[in-house]
Specification:
By secondary structure, this protein is of the alpha/beta class. It contains 11 helices and 15 strands. The two termini are 44 Å apart. Pfam families: DUF34_NIF3.
């Protein structure tokens, strides 16, 4: 087992390309080709977590938050970030972070929180736009099924709960092979007409290299004609936050007590605005940027962390804000990642950290 095997599996769940532009997910310390002796899963990578990994004989820490978020100009131990990185290097422990890319998939951080809260009929609160591409290519009729099957296998043609989606129409293509060409049909130096299909398929932007490789490998032409088009369509499977329904309505205070029971800590909230609540929007971590999306989606309550004092006024009698804290809203990510690794590698040494990394304490 190599560290790269763990990374490949995790990025199959939450591709690194799905992280936000400001983020720093991925392998931060270590060599992906090294043998992996064990994994410790945590929300944060701290000195205590590194020591825990060493004690368990594990040389990989998979955390949600990246310990290196902005550039490091020197390593001399002046703060906890530098000390943690230095300790990981000295002890031979690799550090891997899976942060906003895990936030941005519909099986990630928010799906886990929704599961804990018992939400049903969940969907992404703010789907991402611009993450879909369209491939248009031209295929001779003799090879249309072969090319389509290859593109589907590479991840093209998925729309929501449907797969193998495409559009094609027939027409006539022309070409003339130049000196040194070896055309699949026709004769070099003579214009050739061929009955072809115009084939269109959609794919997520992170699959582009696989889709193009599949196209080139399956297409019979020496030179393949194709167009790549960026779309502004939103993708329902990726985006920020999540919204769902409680199994049955509750009063606002009943829900807030239920929420605290499920997540612990302290719940800071704005005044109730209705007798009952059922539609609940959530965002693990810092989610204030999604408040207007939650209001637009008719949520009764928006559950997240890190709201500032003046931001609570923005509820403006349109929604109840329930701030449960950053750590509390993401704590279940440890279980999510642990289960994901164990499902793929059931006999591998995988551990949930016993270190509570929340820097905030409550009386």
């Amino acid at each position: 087992m190599r560290i790269a095997d763990i990374i490949s599996h995790l990025e199959g769940i939450a591709p690194n390309a799905y992280q936000e532009s400001y983020d720093n997910s991925g392998l931060l310390v270590g060599n992906a080709n090294d043998e992996c002796t064990g994994v410790v899963v945590s929300l944060d990578a701290t000195e205590a977590v590194i020591e825990e990994a060493v004690a368990k004989g594990a040389n990989l820490v998979v955390s949600h938050h990246p310990i290196i978020f902005s550039g490091l100009k020197r390593l001399n131990g002046k703060n906890y970030i530098e000390r943690t990185v230095m300790l990981a290097i000295v002890k031979g422990v690799a550090l891997y972070a899976i942060h906003t890319n895990l936030d941005n998939v519909d099986t990630g951080v928010n799906a886990k929180l929704a599961e804990v809260l018992g939400l049903q009929n969940t969907r992404i609160l703010s789907p991402k736009k611009g993450w879909i591409r369209k491939l248009v290519t031209f295929v001779p009729k003799s090879h249309i099924d072969e090319v389509m099957s290859a593109l589907f296998a590479a991840g093209a043609g998925n729309i929501g709960t449907y797969d193998e989606c495409s559009f094609r129409n027939d027409g006539t293509g022309t070409f003339r092979g130049g000196e040194g060409s070896d055309p699949f049909v026709g004769v070099p130096g003579q214009r050739h007409e061929e009955e072809e299909f115009r084939l269109e398929v959609l794919y997520p932007f992170d699959r582009q290299s696989k889709v193009l490789n599949a196209l080139f490998a399956s297409h019979p032409y020496e030179e393949v004609a194709y167009d790549l088009i960026s779309l502004e369509n939103s993708r329902a499977e990726t985006g920020s936050g999540m919204i769902g329904e409680l199994e049955s309505e509750m009063t606002t205070l009943e829900f807030l007590k239920y929420l605290k029971e499920k997540v612990g800590g302290v719940v800071r909230y704005t005044k109730p605005i209705g007798e009952k609540v059922k539609n609940i929007a959530i965002c693990g971590g810092s989610g204030s940027f999604l408040l207007n999306d939650a209001i637009r989606q008719k949520a009764d309550v928006f559950v997240t962390g890190d709201f500032k004092y003046h931001q609570f006024f923005d509820a403006d009698d349109r929604i109840v804000i329930a701030d449960i804290g950053h750590f509390e809203s993401e704590q279940f990510t440890i279980e999510l990642l642990y289960d994901a690794i164990r499902e793929k590698f059931p006999t591998f040494a995988t551990f949930k950290t016993a270190v509570k990394t929340n820097p905030i304490l409550y009386l």
